[in-house]
Automatic annotation (TrEMBL):
SUPFAM superfamilies: Periplasmic binding protein-like II. This is Tripartite tricarboxylate transporter substrate binding protein. CDD domains: PBP2_Bug27. Pfam families: TctC. Keywords: Signal. Belongs to the UPF0065 (bug) family. InterPro entries: BUG, Bug_dom1. The lineage of its organism: Bacteria, Pseudomonadati, Pseudomonadota, Alphaproteobacteria, Acetobacterales. It comes from Dankookia rubra. Residues 1-22 form the signal peptide.
Length: 325
């Protein structure tokens, strides 16, 4: 979780970029390319578009979006990493890209720790334990756990792919509570939700943003959120600890990055604009409506946050048994 200290106070400074290139004072003087390593319509894409629009307004040049999905974000991240470090290529990098990929893949086309200039944290959101109301009798998480354990053929849980926080959350949940759970990967929530509503999939512990409409419509039961506190727009959903499963805190998050070696003056200029964006109540409201929280941090704090989470996530990958070539 990004606490106030992480976001606002600053941590020990870490190397971020090479010495500033000449002629950075007039940056940007042409459009900036924003590579989104995920498909259109998902939470990362939607939230990146909000920020890109705001950056365009504040910095006076278009921030032009380009979706480069594939390989769990690795294709788009490689494109960012291998771009010229002149400030004209940027994009969102999620927890999957910066803190999970190196434990999941036998080989990556980039180094998550050294190949990016991390500018600021961008957003954060919890996962939510959800199950279809039509096919799932339990009304509380504890009841759901007992019910799931009693299923003679076990249960299934969905995720947007191997190694995502939804996969690792579901795997860790079943392992810890001794539930016979089978992981079923999909391309995204747009496929997971219909599978649950048709009775083909038992549950998911997936990003809250994708499930708010079906929760509010009553088609999904929401048993708990994986954040340390209840979510602002859905205050009736308990946390995992409140629901009887303590020490189960995992949130999805995203940072705004460019290739390694971006001049520090450019990094600072974008960071200052993102601080203004995160402080704007209208922007905060737009993020909350999509199920996320708009956040800001120093570059050093963003690096420290990604590093701090890696040991926990490495263990979760190990428990899941996931491995990608």
């Amino acid at each position: 979780m990004l606490d106030r200290r992480t976001l606002l106070l600053g941590a020990t400074a870490l190397p971020l970029a090479a010495p500033a290139l000449a002629q950075t004072s007039d940056w940007p003087n042409r459009p900036v390319r924003v590579i989104i390593p995920w498909p259109p319509g998902g939470s990362t894409d939607v939230l990146a578009r909000i920020v890109a629009d705001q950056l365009s307004q504040k910095l006076g040049q278009p921030f032009v979006l380009e979706n480069r999905p594939g390989a769990s974000g690795n294709i788009g991240m490689e494109a960012i990493a291998k771009s010229a470090p002149d400030g004209y290529t940027q994009g969102p990098a999620t927890i999957a890209n910066l803190s999970i990929a190196q434990f999941l893949y036998a080989k990556l086309p980039f180094n998550p720790e050294t190949d990016f200039s991390v500018i600021s944290m961008h957003w954060e959101l919890p996962n939510v334990v959800v199950a279809p109301a039509q096919f799932t009798p339990p009304n509380t998480l504890r009841e759901f756990i007992d019910w799931a354990k009693a299923q003679p053929k076990g249960v299934s849980y969905g995720s947007p792919g191997v190694g995502t926080t939804a996969h690792l959350s579901g795997s860790g949940f079943c392992d810890r509570l001794k539930i016979d759970g089978q992981h079923v990967p999909f391309r995204g929530a747009a496929q997971i939700i219909p599978a649950m509503l048709s009775g083909d999939l038992t549950f998911a512990i997936d990003n809250l943003a994708s499930y708010i409409p079906v929760i509010q419509e009553g088609r999904m039961k929401a048993y708990a959120v994986t954040s340390p506190e209840r979510w602002t727009t859905l205050p009736n959903i308990p946390t995992m600890a409140e629901a009887g499963v303590p020490d189960f805190v995992i949130t999805s998050w995203c940072a705004w990055v460019g290739p390694a070696g971006m001049p520090r003056p450019i990094v600072d200029k974008v960071n200052a604009a993102m601080k203004e964006i995160a402080a704007d109540p209208a922007v905060q409201q737009r993020f909350l409506q999509t199920g996320a929280k708009c956040v800001w941090s120093t570059p050093e704090d963003a690096l420290a946050h990604a590093a701090k989470q890696r040991p926990m996530l490495a263990q979760m990958v190990k428990v899941s048994g996931a491995r990608m070539e």
